[in-house]
Design brief:
By secondary structure, the chain is of the alpha+beta class. It is built from two helices and three strands, in the order αβββα. A three-stranded antiparallel β-sheet has the order 1-2-3, with helices on one face.
Length: 69
């Protein structure tokens, strides 16, 4: 069974090394945030209501993260 914890464990090392994307726990579930280092502000926020949403979102952003690494 897929859980938030399992998805976070899979992507933990990548997220810790990335300065632009963060997954944070909020009062409305987890949220994937994108940081704009030039403007010094968040430029995207994606609500991750289910572990499947989190997995899908991170699979989309991983190539972006690797291009900046």
């Amino acid at each position: 069974m897929l859980t938030f914890g399992r998805v976070l464990n899979i992507f933990e090392d990548i997220l810790q090394q990335d300065p632009l994307y963060e997954v944070v726990s909020t009062s409305h579930d987890y949220t994937l945030l994108g940081w704009d280092s030039y403007r010094n502000q968040w430029y995207s926020a994606e609500l991750l209501e289910t572990p499947e949403d989190m997995l899908d979102a991170l699979l989309v952003y991983i190539p972006v993260i690797w291009n900046y690494s």
